[in-house]
Design goal:
Elements: H1 4-13, H2 16-21, E1 27-29, E2 32-35, E3 47-50, E4 55-58, E5 64-65, H3 67-75, H4 79-89, H5 100-130, H6 132-144, H7 149-154, E6 158-160, H8 166-173, H9 178-183, E7 198-204, E8 210-217, E9 227-229, H10 245-255, E10 258-261, H11 264-272, E11 278-280, H12 288-295, E12 300-306, H13 309-324, E13 328-334, H14 340-359, E14 361-362, H15 363-374, H16 379-394, H17 399-413, H18 417-452, H19 478-491, H20 505-513, H21 523-537, H22 544-548, H23 553-564, H24 573-577, H25 591-620, H26 626-649
Parallel strand pairs: 10-11, 10-12, 12-13
Antiparallel strand pairs: 1-2, 2-3, 3-4, 4-5, 6-7, 7-8, 8-9, 13-14
Helix pairs in contact: 3-4, 5-6, 11-14, 15-16, 15-17, 16-17, 16-18, 17-18, 19-21, 19-23, 19-25, 20-25, 25-26
This protein binds zinc ion.
Length: about 650
């Protein structure tokens, strides 16, 4: 493991703009830098980099963090990978701690898995090119397909014989362990080869490392599976992989278009014919992860599929996913009985290129036309089909695009445009509601998890959240809670006043609210304040740096939000959240005033809650609970006194 000292050094040294600038064009705006967000699709920049705070924040999609988080998010690095990347960039020597052996072992283990796969790829290649069986069976199959030797080499094509354990023996003889061979399922549980008597295709990841294999039988026996794939492993998660992406990514980016086909041989044939911007979803219907992978290189997707109804249906679900992610999707339907492989061989490069241009049609319009043809005499099927098209259109995030489709489809289907718009709006609403519920559920799950997590910083002031407080409720108080977090993050470390330079704003705030810490609406804010309190109690004064680099992602995100939100004061702030601010013009310089004000409002509201709870308890007490009743009445007086004093200071008119 990387030592804490090194981690700190890297975090202190890495500059966010250096890291981000390698991926995003930034231009200066005031003290910040602004660019188009690499994490979501946008036309006007809302991605902000603050060199002073050393963080980035997107006001469109909400992503934000320090340089390490940027790399983790953008390049799917793990935390240590991002640290190592930065260490290299800034010439920082990495000091490993005691556990480095474990870490190295783990790293070596993963790397050794790649090496095992590399061995297998080479082995299959060698079998194809240098053995009699490989030459006569495998090679003649590939030659029949018209594959050149270059192509075979480039894609790592190979062959495995019917010998039951030739690969396993060859690999173990070279020192690869049976354990790792089994982990990758190159060897089965009986110590025999997993792949036998097949031509082999190697599946590479984005950086060209072999992660899995597919074997195709050359037998015509229907009982034998045509393709056998490596099962999923640590290296291979099927839904995230696109076959051919390593060899195609450059062309996809350059041509700003990705062709999607179904099979391995389609990818290879198209490549050889000069169409290098092609990937295959290899059997599965397109997944969200796969679409995201394509989206890293282009927005434009052209799907080639079998022209029959079954092919269409299979393509449908994946297409919806692509539309939802705002890809521009076109489809090319192939003549019945042809696949891209056979079609390109039949037409040749120029002919196929012409064919693609001529046949590519917009997916939704194509679907509409197909519906018209297939349901001419079946009104029920037609009506179902129309609903399906409407829900597809409703998936498109861009309103302009939707409007165009509605117009064209309504015309094609001869439906009143108004009716079509109404139905689309209803479907949109359903989608939004579905997403909203999903988000709520996620939040609830996260909140429940947080409530269950052991809290190291528990103390007598802080009770465990109870009842509905464990849920991520959206009470009115959340804004006040957020305001407290904002003050602590931005100014907690500053001296409270000139008169009392030894007390920090953070200490002042906590001292004043510690008796109401059990009354939080939002568990995230509660966790944050508790963490803050824990640090203060331990004699430390946490600052922005502490929170931005905190190991708890929720705390980190809160700190980033609070420190980079475009200052949340606005003319309607008071009306919306009944918070008065006397410090409109330059809030950063007036935190003391803000802190006082926010704390008072926060506390006022929480004291009211305590009063309500206390009243409820009094009402529920039985006459014999005389001691408890006395206690509650005393508490009531005390709480009322605090509330009235706060009310006076805040000029709130009290009615009771
Ligand atoms: Zn964004």
């Amino acid at each position: 493991m990387i030592s804490d000292k090194t981690v700190q050094l890297i975090l202190d040294t890495a500059r966010v703009q250096d890291v981000v600038e390698e991926y995003v064009n930034l231009r200066k705006r005031g003290a910040n830098l602004l660019g188009l967000c690499p994490f979501h699709n946008e036309k006007t920049p809302s991605f902000t980099v603050s060199p002073a705070k050393n963080i980035y924040k997107c006001f469109g999609c909400g992503k934000g963090g320090n340089p390490v988080q940027f790399l983790m998010e953008h390049d799917s690095f793990s935390f240590p990978e991002a640290l190592r990347f930065l260490a290299q960039k800034y010439n920082i020597e990495i000091e490993e701690t005691q556990q480095s052996d474990e870490y190295l072992q783990e790293k070596q283990r993963k790397e050794s898995l790649y090496l095992v796969n590399q061995f297998a790829e080479d082995y299959f290649k060698n079998e194809l090119i240098h053995t009699d069986e490989g030459k006569s069976v495998g090679m003649s199959y590939f030659k029949d397909r018209g594959y050149l030797l270059d192509t075979i080499e480039k894609f790592g094509l190979g062959y495995c014989s019917s010998n039951p354990d030739k690969l396993t023996k060859a690999a173990t003889a070279k020192g690869y362990t049976l354990e790792s061979l089994k982990e990758l399922r190159l060897t089965n549980n009986y110590d025999k080869d997993f792949f036998r008597d097949r031509v082999m295709f190697t599946i590479h990841n984005l950086s060209g490392k072999p992660i899995a294999f597919a074997g195709r039988t050359l037998k015509t026996d229907k009982k034998i599976a045509k393709y056998v794939n490596s099962p999923e492993s640590e290296l291979y998660v099927k839904s995230r992989v696109l076959y051919g992406v390593y060899h195609s990514k450059k062309a996809i980016r350059k041509l700003d278009e990705c062709l999607l086909v179904e099979g391995y041989t389609d990818v290879i044939s198209l490549h050889q014919s000069g169409f290098e911007n092609v990937v295959a979803s290899s059997g599965t219907s397109l997944t969200e992860d796969q679409v995201r992978l394509i989206k890293r290189f282009t927005q434009n997707l052209k799907i080639l599929y079998d022209g029959d109804a079954a092919g269409m249906k299979a393509a449908d679900r994946g297409l919806n996913i692509a539309l939802e992610q705002d890809m521009n999707v076109k489809v090319v339907s192939l003549p019945i009985g042809e696949d891209p492989d056979s079609q390109v061989r039949k037409l040749g490069s120029a002919g196929f290129s012409e064919f693609l241009d001529k046949e590519a049609s917009d997916f939704i319009l194509f679907k509409t036309k197909l519906l018209l043809d297939s349901t001419a005499n079946d009104p029920i099927a037609k009506s179902n089909g129309i609903s399906n098209i409407i829900s597809t259109i409703a998936l498109i995030p861009d309103a302009m695009k939707r409007a165009v489709y509605i117009k064209e489809c309504a015309q094609l289907l001869q439906i009143d445009e108004g009716v079509f718009i109404d139905s689309t709006n209803a479907a949109l609403k359903k989608n939004v509601q579905g997403k909203w519920t999903e988000r709520k559920n996620q939040e609830r799950r996260a909140a429940n998890q947080a409530a269950r997590a052991p809290e190291a910083e528990q103390n007598e002031f802080v009770q465990k959240p109870q009842g509905n407080q464990t849920k991520a409720s959206r009470g009115k108080d959340e804004f006040k809670e957020k305001d407290i977090v904002r003050i602590l993050v931005n100014a907690g470390h500053m001296p409270f006043s000139k008169e009392e330079p030894d007390i920090s704003i953070g200490e002042f705030v906590l001292a004043n609210i510690s008796d109401v810490l059990d009354k939080f609406d939002n568990p995230k804010y509660e966790k944050f304040i508790k963490t803050y309190k824990g640090e203060l109690d331990a004699g430390k004064q946490p600052g922005l740096h502490f929170f931005i680099n905190h190991k708890d992602g929720e705390i980190r995100d809160l700190a980033i939000d609070a420190s980079s939100s475009p200052f949340e004061y606005s003319h309607n702030w008071k009306d919306k959240h009944d918070i008065t601010l006397r410090t409109q013009p330059n809030p950063e310089e007036n935190f003391m005033e803000d802190a006082l004000q926010s704390v008072k409002y926060f506390k006022y509201s929480k004291i009211n809650k305590k009063i309500e709870d206390n009243k409820k308890e009094i009402a529920s007490l039985k006459s014999e609970d005389i001691n408890r009743l006395q206690h509650c009445l005393k508490l009531h007086q005390k709480l009322m006194a605090i509330r009235n004093e706060l009310g006076k200071q805040l000029k709130i008119v009290l009615l009771d």
